[in-house]
Amino acid sequence: MPLAAVFFDFDFTLAESTTASVECINHALVACGYPAAEREAIRRCIAFPLAEVLPRLTGVEDHAAIAQFAAIYRSRADQVTAGLTQLFPSVYHALPQLRSQSLKTAIVSTKPRYRIESILALREAGHLFDFIVGGEDVRNHKPDPEPLLRAMSRWSLAPQEVVYVGDHPVDAQAARDAEIPFIAMLTGTSRASDFEPFPTHAQLHSLDDLPPILARLSHRL
Q1: Least CB-packed of 1, 58, 73, 200 within 10 Å?
Q2: CATH 3.40.50.1000 in the chain, residue ranges
Q3: CA 24 to CA 36: how far, in whole Å?
Q4: Distance between CA atoms of 173 and 36, rounded to whole angstroms?
Q5: d(CA 64, CA 67)
Q6: Is the N-terminal amide bond of 181 cis, ω within 30° of 0?
Q7: CATH value of 5-16+86-220 in 3.40.1160.10, 3.40.50.150, 3.40.50.1000, 3.40.50.1220
Q8: pLDDT tens digits for 163-183?
Q9: Model pTM greater than 0.90?
Q10: pLDDT tens digits, residue range 112-121?
Q11: Rg for the chain, CA atoms, rounded
């Protein structure tokens, strides 16, 4: 069955969002009375839903505290995230190549859809993607396969017609459970060994390497 679509995670797969995440998370932490977190600790939290960030950074699991932190984070993120997030230059090279091969492209991320849309608009890249499944579009976030299954249902695709590209083991687990081939990007906080428990068709350091990998993979699916 020929490859029909490529789904992408967003943070650290398509975009460098460290500066935005550090700014928003530390703003919320300090506003809530906690000390600012280290940059690398914050980077390791980016793949997870917002409700998990405060527990991971502070150990605090009180629901009211998490809700307060999340509200302050969202307010700051709406102000600064688009301006502080850069797409990787390879996005502008690789995505047009994929679309010229009649492949559909979509983003499947835990990040809110409206926030991704604002980043893409600012970076003049919205035309490179057909649609976005964001955190507000599903009940269960990655590593649950629901976001990928929802994206597949948009085009009535079979798992063999899709490849998911992501930078974190939660992406790999979601792809495995959705029975979708997975390609790992080593552009975030994960190491190559982190993907060993999951079926992975390739590990890439740049999206520039993706088009030829997909051409070979398409013949094997």
Answers
A1: 1
A2: 5-16+86-220
A3: 11
A4: 31
A5: 5
A6: no
A7: 3.40.50.1000
A8: 999 999 999 999 999 999 999
A9: yes
A10: 999 999 999 9
A11: 17
